[in-house]
Specification:
This protein is mainly α and 455 residues long. 76% of the residues lie in helices and 0% in strands.
């Protein structure tokens, strides 16, 4: 289950990473600017933000595995259209359908993780699954750029389309539909050998043992299955911790989207490296991000088991601030090998925030609303991802006109470190509300079991 869910996110990220990997030949072939390149990601993410509410409702009320298979098939068809695009406008239009299909992945994957895996292991599981995002983006940058150099920038898109069809078939054959509310949870022994305590929700148990009371005005007492999307959205946005987590996640993905789109161009322009060598430089940075994702989840779960119940918000808060501080010397230094050390550490800190944030969102939202809550977050995340590349590209074009192209991208990254640093400080405010919101979610009325069996 972990591998299949990770591959879903890997292909999602690989498509966006491919845009960055083939940026140089794509810009040369179609005669486009940095800002126009960033618009590809903006259109895809913007359309995804519009489609996400529908995906969230379907994730809570329909068979999730079937929905995921259908969206991946649509996703594959969109990549074929993009790979065959004869001009800039055609490729831009192909991103519309792709964005709508990608929007379903976040709510479905989050809901499946909540129902497949025990609460005490959610951050760790999220770490493994989110590793797919990084592996997909990394392979796209490494392989996509080389394939584009050997063949054409169209080849990586067509290759991803074929892989996506294989994933859709594997999901249909291998992934069962779990029962809602954690009733279809996999036994912990399937993951590793330990005592039955791993099945318990340690954070919630500790919070309730310490006498933390739910907010009586926020306890969900109505049937969540009868709530419209807008009623559910108002409810989940009324959760104070959730608002903070959503904003923090969006800012993190804003920076990551710009990094993913322009990292290769920055290395090519800043250090004057050939394409093949730049691809090798990406490897340690990618490994740092993978390590951070896995370590962040496992470390946070360990702290929770030691009754550090706020760990799922404090760990990512410190990680975001540390990432901004570590990226700074890497961008300023002109020596590529010293810069790589700092970029690797920065990627490690940046990536380590995502897994505990994902687990924290499941902690504070009633299980019957997981899909819709994640779709609300997905809307804001995709909006941030849409704004990231075009904002980075615009700032780079403005600074590049004064100090050269490579310096323009460097200055754009330096400017964007400021919101990343502030983001970590902003997230610390969730410490005051997280425990109350966990207790409030635990007191919610459960939903009736939806029809989840596959025909």
């Amino acid at each position: 289950m972990i591998i299949l869910l990770a591959v879903v996110l890997a292909l999602n990220s690989a498509d966006s990473g491919t845009i960055g990997a083939v940026a140089a030949p794509l810009e040369a072939d179609l005669g486009i600017s940095h800002a126009q390149l960033g618009l590809f990601a903006t259109v895809s993410s913007g359309v995804g933000a519009v489609a996400a509410p529908v995906a969230g409702v379907l994730a809570d009320r329909t068979t999730r595995v079937r929905l995921l298979v259908i969206t991946i098939a649509v996703w594959s068809a969109s990549m074929v259209v993009g790979g065959l695009a004869p001009n800039y406008l055609w490729l831009l239009l192909s991103r519309i359908t792709l964005g709508a299909a990608v929007a379903a992945a976040g709510p479905i994957v989050a809901s499946l993780i909540g129902d497949f895996f025990a609460p005490n292991e959610r951050a760790k599981i999220y770490g493994w699954v989110l590793t797919g995002e990084l592996v997909g983006a990394g392979l796209a940058l490494l392989v996509g750029g080389d394939v584009a150099a050997w063949l054409t920038w169209r080849a990586p898109f067509l290759g991803l389309a074929a892989i996506s069809l294989g994933l859709a078939a594997a999901l249909w054959r291998l992934m069962p539909e779990p029962r809602r509310g954690g009733a279809g949870r996999l036994p912990p022994g399937r993951l590793r050998h330990h005592d039955a305590a791993a099945e318990a929700d340690q954070a919630k148990a500790t919070i309730l043992e310490e006498g933390v009371l739910p907010d009586p005005d926020r306890v969900l007492r109505r049937d969540p299955d009868k709530m419209t999307f807008w009623q559910a959205a108002r409810y989940v946005l009324g959760i104070r911790t959730n608002r903070t987590l959503i904003i923090a996640t969006a800012v993190g993905y804003f920076f990551f989207a710009g990094l993913r789109t322009f990292a290769l161009l920055f290395a090519l322009d800043r250090y004057g490296l050939p394409q093949a060598l730049v691809s090798l430089v990406i490897i340690p940075i990618g490994l740092g991000a993978v390590f951070g994702t896995l370590f962040g989840g496992r470390f946070t779960d360990r702290l929770v088991r030691r009754r550090r119940t706020n760990a799922r918000v404090t760990v990512p808060a410190y990680a975001y601030s540390a990432a901004a501080l570590v990226f700074l010397p890497g961008l300023v230094l002109a020596n590529i090998w010293l810069s790589v050390v700092f970029f690797t550490l920065g990627a490690c800190f940046l990536a380590s925030a995502n897994a505990p944030l994902g687990a924290a969102r499941l902690d504070i939202v009633p299980s019957a609303l997981w899909g819709r809550a994640e779709s609300v977050r997905t809307v804001l995340q995709l909006a941030a991802e849409a704004a990231g590349p075009i904002a980075f590209g615009f700032v780079a074009d403005e600074f590049g006109g004064m100090s050269g192209r490579g310096a323009g991208l460097r200055d754009a990254f330096l400017v964007m470190l400021v919101p990343l640093l502030v983001n970590g400080l902003w997230l610390l405010r969730a410490r005051r509300s997280y425990r109350t919101d966990v207790a409030t979610a635990a007191a919610a009325r459960p939903a009736a079991e939806p029809v989840t069996e596959r025909a």
